[in-house]
Amino acid sequence: MGRTGAYVDRALRVLADTRVQLAATVVAVSAATAGVIAVRREVVTKRTPISLTPNEESLVREQLARHYAFLGEGGHLLLWSTDGARLYALANDRAGGRVFSVDIASGARTALTGSGYVSSIARAGADMLLAVYSNTTASADIYAVETAGAEAAMRQIANVNHDILDSVRLSPAEDFWFTGARGDQVHGWILRPHGFNASRTYPLALHIHGGPQRASTHSFSHGQWNPNMNAAAGFAVVQINFHGSSGYGQNFTDSIRQKWGGYPYEDLMKGLDAVLANHTFVNGRRLVALGGSYGGYMANWLNGNTDRFSALVSHDGQFDMVSSYYTTDELWFVERLAGKFRTPTLFIHGANDFRLSLEQSLAPWTLLRRRGIPARLVYFADEGHWASRPGNSVRWYREVLE
Ligand SMILES: *[C@@H]1O[C@H](CO)[C@@H](O)[C@H](O)[C@H]1NC(C)=O
Ligand SMILES: *[C@@H]1O[C@H](CO)[C@@H](O)[C@H](O)[C@H]1NC(C)=O
Ligand SMILES: *[C@@H]1O[C@H](CO)[C@@H](O)[C@H](O)[C@H]1NC(C)=O
Ligand SMILES: *[C@@H]1O[C@H](CO)[C@@H](O)[C@H](O)[C@H]1NC(C)=O
To answer: Alpha-carbon distance 174 to 333, whole Å?
Structure first.
């Protein structure tokens, strides 16, 4: 039995201890699949630790990987308590993803988890939840969360990747706040490059999240955009939850309406200034920025507004607001800004991206090439809006890092 088998096995033992319902098996977190349902059926009939055939194991692995990719999308989840008196809810909270218990009668809200990111929960009896949790330095795994008491300690009940994680160095996220657009406090964090030496200077990679009404979080990305991949390549990495991000109140999220370029751009520039003012180890003349979807739109926006960056990555980004379906004050993006494009850019696009089609990358790529500015277009023939297949992820990192 491999790692996944041991993982399921161990979690099941914990579940057996706590008289858990079938619905709360460890694999229920990715229950939408036949492979996982087969595992669950076996749990019901045998009620003993199970072993998986190589086929089943690879199926479970694949489903977990897919589930983890989905986690990156920050799906929220609601669950009723077994007695119906409470609702358990996942919500973004300042770059974290926390489980809240909401008392239905009073509306009182209690946080059950602290820092880091819970991406999905399943019920495990009357007083316990199972949670998929990760943080910047710990990949997603299964934890038990007590539902009684505030911020009860979470207990890790599986550690499926420890042999791999123990062999790599991961930089923690160091939080900071600065005064951004409209005088609001804006949250960001920095990861130091691996092998950090305070007397050296390092280039900086700015990661820009998509959405825009979502957030960069203190979670562990199993697909693209894991900031530690850039830290491993010798970059300091900065992420900023600019106006429009979720987890800072509805007003902050809503504030991006009609301001797709404006507030976030101001936040990113001010955040970078704050980082450069505090950290002499960052070389302010070696800045790059990377983003996907809305983050790709912002990479294009940076190209039209500043020459602060020596290179950009725009993944499935938006370029032409006219041929796209948004109508904001930035409708004339191309006319107003494309004339200024001069930063070398890597464009990445998926053939099956039905949200933003290929011409959104083809157009700015052509523009840069015609001006003799280095530009590269990487086209994934078998990807949609995210490049999620494992082989493509490897290729994606190679393209971005080289
Ligand atoms: C991240 O998770 C690991 C494993 O559970 C834990 O040891 C560590 O304290 C967590 N870090 C943060 C910042 O919460
Ligand atoms: C840190 O960098 C300085 C300057 O390059 C070098 O002299 C020193 O040996 C480095 N320290 C370590 C621990 O690598
Ligand atoms: C929400 O933001 C607007 C500016 O966009 C501000 O005028 C208003 O006072 C804010 N409301 C609250 C409740 O903070
Ligand atoms: C800069 O340093 C100040 C004072 O220590 C701190 O409050 C602030 O969060 C720091 N900002 C950044 C971007 O590191």
So the answer is: 34
